[in-house]
Amino acid sequence: MDELAAARRVMGAGSVPAGDAYTIEVRRRYAAQIDDVWDAVTNPERLRRWLRAVTGELRLGGKFELDGGEHGEILRCEPPRLLKVSWLYGPDADAWPGTSEVEVRLAPGPTGDTEFELIHAAVVGEPLFPTYGPGAGGVGWDLALLALARLLADGETIDHEGIHRSPEGREFIRRSAAAWGEAHLAAGGDPEHVAAAVEATTRFYAPDPT
C-alpha cells in the first residue's frame, strides 16, 4: 500500500497520430540512480521481471512484442531520459495504427534518486473507456510499477498471478481502481459513470473467487 501511495495519478488530454487522446499519467520517485532505472525499463532481461518478456528489434524504429500480446514500434529513445513507443493490443489492433502510445520520462532526483513519469495516451473513443474509465490501463500500470519498485529495491521478481489471488493483492487492486476513479473525477468525469467504471475495473482485475 505504501507503493500505491507513492504515486501521483492524473487523467488528462493529449494527442496521438490518430487524433485527440485522453492520457493516464503516473508520477513517482524511485530510490535508484537514473541509469539503473533506465536499464530496468529497456534491458530485456530485467524488463521481463517486472512487465513481460519482450522480443523484436529493440532499437529506434524497431518493432517489439510482449508475450501478453502488446506490441508496437519504438518511436523515440533518448538514453537515459526518454522512451516512447506505440502500444497496440490484440490481433485486430494493427488495423488501427496510431491510436495508443506510451512514454516514459526519467530525471535525476536531488538525492541520487530518480523521478519517474509514465504517460499512456489513447485515442478518444477507445472502446474500453466507457466501461472501465482510466482504470482500464491505470490499474495494470500500477501493478507493473509495484513490480518495478521491488526489482529496483532488492532484485525481487513479483508473482503477478499470485498478486491477483492474494488478499493483499486484491486490496491493492481495489485501491488502485478507486485512485483512478478519483483522477477521473478530478478531470471532470460524471460521478455515476466514474462509480460504475471503478466497480467494473475492480471486477475485471480481481474477480470474485470461484
UniProtKB/TrEMBL annotation:
Domain Activator of Hsp90 ATPase homologue 1/2-like C-terminal per the UniProt entry, residue ranges: 32-152
Annotated Pfam families: AHSA1 (PF08327)
Coiled-coil region: none
Membership in a protein family: Belongs to the AHA1 family.
Domain of life assignment: Bacteria
Protein name as annotated: Activator of Hsp90 ATPase homologue 1/2-like C-terminal domain-containing protein
